[in-house]
């Protein structure tokens, strides 16, 4: 708990080990996947080469991005994004433990998190390209999902995970979702908001996947990550990551929400739960208002199947995440409801405010609003009293062992 308030981190990250695919990837695909080696002879964390191509656009770009180390160390506080997490030494405990599962639980304790839903780091861009061999895409997802399942077994009542799905074939994606939920205990899946092989989120192509999430009663989470090979932001902005990082998280999410709302995804799948994650959420009221503005002109002719307003669909089916320090949180909550918001620590990424994400939220909004937002992830992932009771017992057990 955080100051007596239950807290679900809807989007906490892990750092994958460099030997993940050595240990978990189907052997017949291993010669197609490699990790670059640095001058020290060690493999680099965070970059994967698949079929001769890097998994992220940022691997070969950023030539001009060479910050002066002295300047970076001075600039250790910023109102919104921490962006200096390493300089403050806040991650030393995790680095010393090589970001293992015990470090994850230690990080949760520092923030006051009851339950965390885990997302990848390198894995955000692992299969983020068009025209990938669907079977290779599946094998990569299976390797990650098997690893993260084992990672969560360190404290399964505190650590949950969203499954990575092979989006290059909707049927393979559905099969992997079923496997991860029924065999590995996944609480949902994550996908990127980008268009995949020409299919965007208003396409009927994805209907079987929407239906499966609804039938399995698990969450579909959209999570962007700058640098994906298939992102249109690369075409617009090229190598400058500043442009792309600003644009991709907000704009890709906005386009996804527009597509899903107008396509009637929430009309046809009324029990589907969707999270729009790590993109803040002050953009949500404006998008809902814009769609509402066009309703009289276009609803009857272009979307006659819609029976609710955009806001009604959002307040029934959707949640959007904040990171605690945004000045618009209280105002946004007044427009869409604090109970439709959730919070991400984004641990252990460079622009996280860890270990002060929860403190920032409490300082930024009323306690009532903060309580709803801390619990937003519980509603998104359908965690109830039993989940919190088990998580509390697990946390107490870890504290007792740490005290010995």
Count of alpha and pi helical runs: 17
Q: In which order are the strands of the major sheet placed?
A: 1-5-6-7-8-9-10-11
**Total discrete domains:** 1
Give me the strand/helix succession: EHEEEHHHEHEHEHEHHHEHHEHEHHHH
Helix/strand-derived class?
alpha/beta
Helix content: 40-55%
Shape: globular
Characterise this structure.
The chain is of the alpha/beta class and 404 residues long. It has a single domain, classed as Metal-dependent hydrolases (TIM Barrel). It is built from 17 helices and eleven strands. The chain has helices at residues 20-24, 69-74, 92-96, 101-111, 134-152, 170-184, 207-216, 232-237, 241-263, 265-268, 284-302, 310-317, 329-336, 357-364, 367-374, 376-381, 385-403; strands at 8-13, 33-34, 49-50, 53-54, 115-119, 159-164, 188-191, 219-223, 273-277, 318-322, 341-343. It has an eight-stranded parallel beta sheet with strand order 1-5-6-7-8-9-10-11. Helix 5 (134-152) packs parallel to helix 6 (170-184) and helix 9 (241-263) packs across helix 11. The two termini are 22 Å apart. Residues 60-77 have low confidence and may be disordered.
């Amino acid at each position: 708990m955080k100051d007596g308030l239950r807290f679900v981190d809807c989007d906490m990250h892990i750092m994958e080990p460099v030997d993940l695919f050595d240990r978990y990837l189907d052997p017949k695909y291993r010669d197609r996947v490699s990790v670059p080696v640095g001058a020290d002879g060690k493999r680099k964390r965070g970059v994967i080469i698949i079929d001769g191509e890097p998994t992220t656009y940022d691997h070969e770009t950023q030539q001009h991005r060479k910050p002066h180390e002295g300047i970076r160390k001075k600039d250790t506080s910023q109102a919104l994004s921490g962006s200096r997490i390493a300089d403050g030494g806040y991650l030393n405990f995790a680095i010393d433990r090589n970001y293992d599962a015990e470090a994850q639980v230690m990080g949760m304790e520092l923030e006051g998190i009851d339950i965390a839903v885990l997302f990848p780091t390198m894995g955000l861009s692992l299969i983020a390209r068009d025209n990938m061999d669907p079977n290779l895409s599946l094998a990569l997802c299976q390797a990650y999902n098997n690893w993260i399942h084992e990672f969560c077994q360190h404290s399964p009542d505190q650590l949950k995970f969203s499954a990575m799905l092979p989006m290059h074939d909707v049927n393979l994606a559905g099969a992997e979702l079923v496997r991860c939920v029924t065999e590995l205990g996944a609480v949902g899946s994550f996908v990127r908001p980008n268009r995949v092989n020409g299919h965007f989120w208003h396409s009927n192509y994805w209907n079987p996947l929407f239906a499966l999430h609804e039938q399995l009663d698990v969450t579909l989470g959209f999570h962007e990550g700058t640098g994906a090979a298939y992102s249109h932001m690369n075409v617009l902005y090229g190598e400058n990551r500043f442009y792309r990082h600003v644009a991709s998280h907000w704009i890709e999410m906005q386009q996804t929400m527009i597509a899903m709302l107008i396509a009637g995804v929430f009309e046809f799948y009324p029990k589907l739960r969707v999270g729009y994650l790590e993109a803040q959420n002050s953009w949500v009221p404006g998008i809902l208002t814009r769609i509402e503005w066009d309703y009289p002109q276009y609803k009857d002719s272009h979307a006659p199947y819609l029976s609710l307003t955009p806001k009604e669909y959002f307040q029934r089916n959707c949640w959007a995440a904040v990171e605690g320090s945004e000045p618009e949180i209280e105002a946004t909550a007044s427009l869409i409801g604090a109970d439709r918001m959730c919070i991400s620590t984004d641990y252990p990424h460079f622009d996280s405010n860890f270990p002060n994400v929860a403190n920032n939220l409490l300082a930024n909004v009323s306690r009532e609003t903060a309580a709803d937002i801390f619990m937003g992830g519980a509603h998104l992932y359908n965690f109830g009293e039993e989940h919190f009771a088990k998580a509390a017992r697990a946390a107490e057990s870890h504290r007792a062992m740490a005290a010995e």
